[in-house]
Amino acid sequence: MNLPTLILAAFAALTIATPSPQELGIQPHSSVPPAVHLSDLKAAGSGCPPNTLDLSLHGSQVSLSFADFFATAGTSKPSDKRRFCQVSFKVKYSPGWTLSIATSEVKGFIGISSGPTAKYTLQGPNLSHEFNHISSVSANVWSPCGEEVIINIKTDIRLIGKGNGVIGVESQSNKFLNSVNLDWKEC
């Protein structure tokens, strides 16, 4: 069966100024279909070894929680400077509904010396320390009415240059979090 695919992947660095969803003009998602089910989680990459990734659904927010997702520079091997994870999963929902990705949110920690720069692959500019970054999607792409979709998310972090640094899990949850907020409407 040919399933529609929504792809969320853009390259950029993070920024220290992180607006709230309300500052971005994003309103809470109040309409959600009566039945939404996530299935067929697949993950591959250096940042998501087996049994280190959780997928959850809370209302209109789909969250990926990475337990072993960090990149280091300084005393580490060159290959430790980058981690990535390609994730895909199916979203099934009630007939008569359509979905679109509204925003993406990442939470983690960055600690770097004066040498390297850190980059996180998603949409947004540079950041340091614990961060919570929200990016809105510039143009909504709606799924076909009532059809199951596959969502693909590529998460990529890297340290560039010489010096010491780390980017990855935050101290409070001990996880690196990547969430997408879905917009829903009846069709």
UniProtKB/TrEMBL annotation:
Alphabetized, the UniProt keywords read: Signal
Question: Would you say which domain of life the source belongs to?
Answer: Eukaryota
Instruction: Specify the signal sequence span.
Output: 1-17
UniProt key word Signal: yes
UniProt cross-references to InterPro entries, sorted A to Z:
DUF4360
Entry-linked Pfam families: DUF4360 (PF14273)
UniProt entry tagged with the keyword Signal: yes
Q: What is this protein called?
A: Secreted protein
